[in-house]
Each structure stands twice: as structure tokens, then as C-alpha cells.
Design brief:
Layout (H helix, E strand, L loop, with lengths): L4 H14 L13 E6 L2 E7 L8 H9 L7 E4 L13 H8 L3 E4 L11 H8 L3 E4 L3 H7 L1 H9 L3 E9 L3 E3 L11 H13 L2 E5 H7 L18 E5 L18 E5 L5 H9 L3 E4 L2 E2 L2 E2 L1 H10 L4 E5 L2 H9 L5 E7 L8 E2 L15 E9 L2 E8 L3
Parallel strand pairs: 3-4, 4-5, 6-14, 6-15, 8-9, 8-14, 9-10, 10-11
Antiparallel strand pairs: 1-2, 1-3, 7-16, 12-13, 15-18, 17-18
Helix pairs in contact: 3-4
């Protein structure tokens, strides 16, 4: 199917609408819809929150009876199953839509081509693949969870220009400036879960919550996840003072008494299989995927951040680099084996470099990803 300029413009508008649900739709995908008839937009909609109307339903409601004979542009294949809401494919058919153009197939196995097939079976012209890369990027965590059975993983670190995250004493507040720390609030708001290790909790007592009111996550804040193989987290930790679920992932080595104490504090304690080194990170991510978490932001120290990278489980690395030198004795950002040859060095691809206050934000991806 060859799409024309107007098709691209309307789908671009649908993607713009979908971004309005950037912080609020999880665990559902961000979806936008535009309904056009005779070159005039007669209805627009976007999915705002799980359990509420999907984008197609909102656009059809605004179009009313005029939707009959119109074209619907949708950023994701229309759903064909009953979930929290009825299937959108049936709503499009009932409204008399004449043509459906969608960006990308839905990776959810409950849909996976079924929505487009249902629309075509009703005699409606249906074409996919328009601005597919853009639509997939908008929902990268949703696609990762359904295709790889794990969330999309972003590792975030703040460091000095010489690659250090703390002085030898452990002092690290603050290497980066206030603008960088504010930007981390955005990363948290985008995520279904913020994950750290027990060492970070014991050393820094972080809240890991979203405190910036600009982000619409009040009724669905990201979960806080702590990897704690022996349940050393204190019931008095700041984690328990902010809104949102606290998941403590532990092993059979944790005492039953600690499980009871922390559950009484409100923690969701899950015991996962143990290995010699503790928790298996792939198993951890599979567990989070089963909880319908699409995106995980790892805010941890060098040990856990390096472990995720070594396991090949990092999709994106975000480094906030401050123009300060901490010296050779300071703590390094990564605990990484020294290669015998330069050709064997781990390499990453720089995707973006942006000034954030006095600091630089580097976005990188593993070179082979």
C-alpha cells in the first residue's frame, strides 16, 4: 500500500495525540486516533489511562454519525479482545468506518494481527505500517514486554567527568546539578518501576519516588523495586513513606520473621529462586513483566548497574556527566573487567548528547543492540 502525504500528516497527528498519555497509560500502550472524512478531521482521541476509553472510542464519540464512510488513523492495530474495555475493532465496524490505517501491529498475543483481520473480514480496507518505527518507539516498553517477556531496561548514573560516582568516603551528594536531578524525575515518571539494590537503600536511604507535580502519575506512581537477597531493608526506610508499591525481591535465604515484619510495613515481598551470586537478573525482569511492568529504570550503584550491563539486559544507558574531577581514589561508575586488547573493550553507541544545566546527559545503547 502506497501512502500519500495526507496519510502521513494524519498519522503524525495521531502520534502527537498518543504522546498525551506518555505518563498515564501504563501498563497499556500510548495510542492516538484521528478520524478524517473528505479531507476534514471530524474526530480525535487518545488513550489516557488503563480502564478508560481507548483512542478509537474517544475519536468515534467526537465524530458521531459522520464517522460512517470515514478513514480512521490509529497508531496501534485496533484491539480485538475484551480486556478492561470492549474491542475497538468492533466499534470501528459498527460506526461504518470505510478505511483503517494503523502504524504498527499489536505485539500482545491476544491481538497480534487479530484486530486488523477482524476489520478486513468486515469488508473494511485496512492497511498497516505507516510511521511504524515512531509508533514502536513510543511504546518500546510495551513491545519489549510482549516480545521478550521482560521490561525495557534503562540504567541511569550520575558521574564526574573522570567517570566517578562518589568519593572514596562514599560522599556523592551532589555530583550533578539541580537540573540533572530534576530530569531524573522525568525518567522516573516515564517508568513502571524504579529498581535499585539493597546496598543503595542502606547507604543513601532514597525515596525513589516522583515528586515533580508536572507529571500526571498521582494515581499510578511507579513501583519501587529493591533487590534484597536477605531482606536487610529497614522498615523505617524512606521507601515506605511515599505513595506507590514497594516490591522487595528476595531469596529463600531471607528469614520468615523479616518477611512478616516488612509485609506488615506494606512491602510486597516476593521470594525468587537463588543462585550463588544471589538473584538472577533475568528472572527478576521476567517477574516484573508478569506484573505488567513495561519499563524499568535502574538507579543503583556500580555493582548492580555493571551486572545488568554484563548480563546483556540493558536497552539504554543514561549518564549525567558533571564537569568535575574526583580523582583516581574516587569510586568508579562501572566495575568492569579490563580487556586484554582494545579490540575486546565493551563498546556502546551514543544516541544523544544534551546539555542539562551545567551537566551533559548522554544516552547510549549497547553497540550490538
Amino acid at each position: 500500500m502506497a501512502f500519500d502525504r495526507s496519510d502521513y500528516l494524519y498519522m503524525a497527528r495521531a502520534l502527537q495525540l498518543a504522546r498525551r498519555g506518555l505518563y498515564s497509560t501504563r501498563p497499556n500502550p500510548r495510542v492516538g486516533c484521528v478520524i478524517v472524512k473528505a479531507g476534514v478531521v471530524i474526530g480525535e482521541g487518545f488513550h489516557y489511562r488503563a480502564g478508560e476509553a481507548h483512542a478509537e472510542i474517544g475519536a468515534l464519540a467526537r465524530a458521531g454519525a459522520a464517522a460512517c464512510g470515514a478513514t480512521a488513523y490509529v497508531t496501534l492495530e485496533p484491539c480485538s479482545h475484551f480486556g478492561r474495555t470492549p474491542p475497538c475493532a468492533e466499534a470501528l465496524i459498527k460506526a461504518g468506518i470505510a478505511r483503517v490505517v494503523y502504524a504498527v501491529d499489536d505485539p500482545n498475543p491476544r491481538v497480534a494481527g487479530g484486530g486488523a483481520a477482524r476489520v478486513r473480514a468486515a469488508g473494511i480496507a485496512c492497511f498497516g505500517g505507516l510511521l511504524a518505527d515512531e509508533a514502536r518507539a513510543l511504546n518500546r516498553g510495551f513491545f519489549c514486554r510482549h516480545t521478550h517477556q521482560r521490561p525495557y531496561v534503562t540504567v541511569k548514573l550520575g558521574m564526574s567527568l573522570d567517570g566517578k560516582v562518589a568519593l572514596a568516603s562514599g560522599e556523592s551528594q551532589w555530583i550533578t546539578g539541580p537540573e540533572a536531578r530534576a530530569d531524573v524525575q522525568r525518567l522516573r515518571a516515564l517508568s513502571g518501576a524504579v529498581l535499585t539494590g539493597v546496598g543503595t537503600v542502606l547507604a543513601d536511604d532514597p525515596g525513589l519516588d516522583v515528586r515533580d507535580p508536572r507529571f500526571d502519575i498521582a494515581d499510578r506512581p511507579p513501583a519501587r523495586v529493591v533487590l534484597d537477597s536477605r531482606l536487610r531493608v529497614s522498615p523505617a526506610a524512606r521507601l515506605f513513606t511515599a505513595a506507590g508499591a514497594v516490591h522487595l525481591l528476595t531469596t529463600p535465604a531471607a528469614s520468615a520473621e523479616r518477611v512478616v515484619v516488612l509485609r506488615a510495613r506494606g512491602a510486597l515481598v516476593d521470594v525468587l529462586p537463588a543462585e550463588a551470586a544471589g538473584l538472577n537478573l533475568a528472572v527478576v525482569l521476567g517477574h516484573l513483566a508478569a506484573l505488567e511492568i513495561n519499563d524499568v529504570l535502574v538507579e543503583a550503584g556500580p555493582t548492580l548497574a555493571s551486572a545488568f550491563l554484563a548480563a546483556g539486559l540493558v536497552d539504554e544507558l543514561i549518564l549525567y556527566v558533571a564537569p568535575v574531577l574526583l580523582g583516581a581514589a574516587a569510586r568508579p561508575a562501572f566495575l568492569w573487567p579490563t580487556p586484554a586488547r582494545l579490540a575486546d573493550a565493551a563498546r556502546l553507541a551514543i544516541v544523544e548528547t544534551v546539555a542539562v544545566g551545567a551537566d551533559q546527559r548522554l544516552t547510549l545503547r549497547p553497540a550490538l543492540a
